[in-house]
Amino acid sequence: MDLETILTLREGLKKTVYADPVKGPNFATGWIGHLLTPAERAQYPIGSAIPPAVGEAWFQADTAKATAAAVVQAMEAGITDPSFLPYLASVNFQLGTDWIEKFSNSWRTICQGRYSTAAANLAFSEWAKET
């Protein structure tokens, strides 16, 4: 499965700006899970339609950062299977590229090749409840 499909399934594709249901009205979100910057919020307040070209640009920028982090993390963890990369990029997209510090036990189990254990650990996290 590719990264866009994974994230669309998890985040949805929302073509209008909305308040993040967990973080609240000060966290405007749109397209595929993009958290708007203050400048973007000024241009696209909550309820605004997002032009497809803008949403795609947000998605490309967000996923480029997540994918770059996933490539580095895969090398660190000794992961050579390219089919794993979109899933690791998805974690970076949703949790931020510093997730390995926040979820150090899960990262450790990934580095040990114990992927099912890592997934089970993350399944019980606050992040899993939010998403």
What does this molecule look like?
With 131 residues, the protein is of the alpha+beta class. Helix content is 60%, strand content 13%. The chain has eight helices and three strands. It is elongated and about 45 Å long.
* Major sheet: 3 strands, antiparallel
- Class derived from helix and strand content: alpha+beta
Please mark out the parts with pLDDT under 50 across 5 or more consecutive residues, or reply none: none
Using only CA atoms, what is the Rg?
Answer: 15 Å
Order of helices and strands: HEEEHHHHHHH
- For this structure, the quaternary state is single chain
Q: Using DSSP, what is the number of strands?
A: 3
> What's the overall average pLDDT, rounded?
92
**Helix proportion:** 55-70%
**Head-to-tail CA distance between termini:** 19 Å
Count helical runs: 8
